[in-house]
Design goal:
Rossmann fold, globular
């Protein structure tokens, strides 16, 4: 906190301008329970920092989450196993989603902007889909799920096209051969983000076939993130939402 106090003293003394003070604090990182937390990231990038659970001890996770809650900061912890997630949820004012392996504080619905629809080909895609859902909301974008509309029963997709068309961005999760993002992108106007999932037999190779299929799509304009990277898909979708909303506000 010393750097913050120093910058604020300089600002109050008039030795630096407000713009200079804001620039100084953009790179600020704060220690919380042994983790250097990038509290200035939203000011620089528009997106909050997510806590990635693997490699962190239960004590470190608990102390970090508690420190963020004490500062009234939103929380999202990803890839957290069920035992640790349920233990933290029993001890702190947070929610745990076992399917998505995410621990989070509930956002205020009135603070969410825009709409991301997270579409999934099948039930096997739900972990990545739910991680994406929680990350979208953590970043500040409204989001909803549409599950089980894959190409093996493609007629199911047509019943939700109006919902997809009304979105600011659409994230499409698929494993196996990863065909669904190409299909969705050929039917709707909003930006489509392909989220390859590590489901499938044999040559699916843990999502590698889906990743290559999405990258090689003949339906132009698809953005593709890494395998099972629900957070990355959410970050791309949220930035699209915020850019579209900012553009709309500037035109008013």
């Amino acid at each position: 906190m010393k750097k913050v106090e120093s910058v604020l003293r300089d600002l109050l003394a008039g030795s630096i301008s407000l713009a200079e003070a804001a620039d100084e604090l953009k790179g600020f990182a704060e220690m919380a329970a042994g983790v250097k937390f990038d509290t200035a990231r939203p000011a620089r990038t528009g997106l909050r920092e997510v806590i990635y659970a693997p490699g962190k001890s239960p004590e470190m996770l608990r102390d970090t989450v508690a420190a963020l809650i004490e500062r009234n900061e939103p929380v999202l912890v990803t890839r957290l196993d069920e035992d640790a997630g349920k233990a933290l949820a029993a001890d702190l004012p947070v929610e745990y989603d076992a399917a998505g392996r995410c621990l989070f504080t509930l956002p205020d619905e009135k603070d969410l902007r825009g709409k991301v629809v997270v579409v999934g080909a099948g039930a096997a895609d739900l972990p990545a889909m739910r991680e994406c859902l929680h990350a979208c909301r953590f970043f500040g974008a409204g989001a909803s799920l549409v599950a089980d509309v894959g190409v093996s029963g493609i007629h199911r997709l047509f019943a939700v096209l109006d919902e997809l068309e009304a979105a600011d961005a659409v994230v499409v999760a698929a494993g196996m051969e990863g065909a669904l993002p190409s299909v969705v992108n050929s039917l709707v106007r909003p930006p489509v983000i392909g989220l390859p999932v590590s489901s499938g037999y044999g040559v699916a190779k843990g999502g590698y076939a889906a990743l290559l299929a999405m990258l090689a799509s003949c339906s132009p304009g698809i953005t593709v993130v890494n395998i099972d990277n629900g957070v990355g898909a959410a970050a791309a979708a949220a930035k699209i939402v915020f850019a579209r909303r900012r553009e709309g506000e500037e035109q008013e």
